[in-house]
Amino acid sequence: MTSEIFDRWLKALDKQLGQQHREIALLIDNYPAHSRDCGEKLKNFKVIFFPPSKLEPLDLGIIKNLKMHYRKRILKEMISAIEKNETVQENIDPRKAIAELYKVWKFDVTAKIICNFFKKGGFSNQTDDIDSDDEDVILTDLKEK
């Protein structure tokens, strides 16, 4: 998604809503391509931005957690190659990166982690503890390696 694509989509939606004689409020997250001035020239709907890190569980840590686990897997592979006196690849093949991200999402970013970040964002009234130690455990493990 780019800001140009997003702006074109908004204009097309505005035109469609005008033809249908409808008005709506569009709730938008804080993705960088969603520019703050995107709703200024629109006639048939109002753009409302979510407050940052209040209603966006992905921003609250799910993406950060995914990246940490991904880096951990890549670093473990590099360390293993060094220990075996093998050549360490400087660049990661895109297919390999996607395969590793798939493994991380499937095995490392658990449903519990995702639920906890949704809870942290206020999407649940349950009071289970959030695994804030997860990040520390990963970093400690990497430091030991």
UniProtKB/TrEMBL annotation:
Q: Which GO terms describe its cellular component?
A: nucleus
Span of domain DDE-1: 1-118
Extract the GO molecular function terms from the UniProt entry. DNA binding
| Superkingdom of this protein's organism | Eukaryota
InterPro entries per the record?
A: CenT-Element_Derived (IPR050863), DDE_SF_endonuclease_dom (IPR004875)
Name of this chain's protein: DDE-1 domain-containing protein
Q: Record the organism.
A: Araneus ventricosus (Orbweaver spider)
